Known about the structure:
Strand content: 15-25%
Shape: rod-shaped
Number of helices: 8
Radius of gyration: 41 Å
Helix content: 40-55%
Order of helices and strands: HHEEHEEHHEHEEHEEHEE
Structural class: alpha+beta
Mean pLDDT: 81
Distance between the termini: 58 Å
Oligomer: single chain
Amino acid sequence: MKQHPYRYNKQQWKFLLFLFAALIATASLLYSNYLVKNLSKSERTKAEVWAMSTKSIVTMPDVNDEFISFISAVRDSLSLPAIITDENETIVAWRDLDSTKTDNSADPDSTKQYDPDYFQKQLNKMKKAHPPIHISLDSGQEWRVHYRDSDALAQLRIFPYLQLSLIAIFLIIAYTVFNSIRDSEQNLVWVGMAKEAAHQLGTPISSMMGWLELARVTYDAEDDSVFNEMERDIKRLEIVADRFSKIGSTPSLSNHAVYPVVEEYVNYFKVRTSQRITFELEGDQQVEAKLNVQVFDWIIENLLKNAVNAIEAEGKISINISENIAKEEIFIDISDTGKGIPRANWETIFQPGYTTRKRGWGLGLSLTKRMVYYHQGQIFVKESEIGKGTTFRIILKSNLRYEPTQI
Length: 407
């Protein structure tokens, strides 16, 4: 497969965009982790200060009421969920827990309660969150201060992931919009070039038709087979020019029998192909569909050219037209005895830029798929085997309607 320059540049641009997003994500995570570590150290210090102030209040003599009041004020200013236990895991003190579950005043009129299970759950969470702070008392006992992150720190821990999610959403939207604008601009350029090419072809095609008529009169060759084939080629050029003039606009569809349309192009194409390739057209000659004949000829042309290119020496191209009455669909199967397509490439071959030839843009099947969609149909690889050939299937909506038979 030949790599198209546009596809290469597009992949390079995607890689740079991904690298930029990765740098933003890494910087955000590193800085957030830096802040979390600093705040975590600060909260551990707050837990130590709270525990030490509690110890001072418990152990200090009553004569220092003024100093105790000061220490109490300092202790109460520290906001942090924490629990102090002794060596036997008995809870000595706590702060910033749910007040509705920590009331031990034994007031019968209180709507609050003391919930031991709640304390145990909170204590287990704190043990998992941080290692305890050990404080030795004058009596030889030891306190263990357990704490968990404050709500602000907990939110800061998840903030970078939320931030990265928003950045990712923004990049996806920006990439989609940019791609859409870029594709739209490119489409407008190609449409303009196609219409200009059609306009430029008009004059020489008309001149060639005039020169052909002059040659017939000069050499008295009204029924000459060579001149007749030349006329068919010139008319074919007119059709091609008309196709280019219609690029970018929705083709008008009208009712046609499918078989005669395909047959006419096959008859034109096969005399311009190697005699070692035989053509076979069979199937239902009555089925009808909504077609734009000039555009539909282009579909058949691309598929037949691909089939010829797939046949290296001699072979056969078969076209079968059938109808699925139950689903009101028309099947057009185009088969060749060429080199076949690997199963992994059955979908890839319809992408712009894909080609196995040294020359070519790889746009034939991509355009074919789009033109089939214009006809409200489908196209896909029905079957293919390496060394034996490939069958493409086109599905169109049948224009004939069948009423169920009543018994």
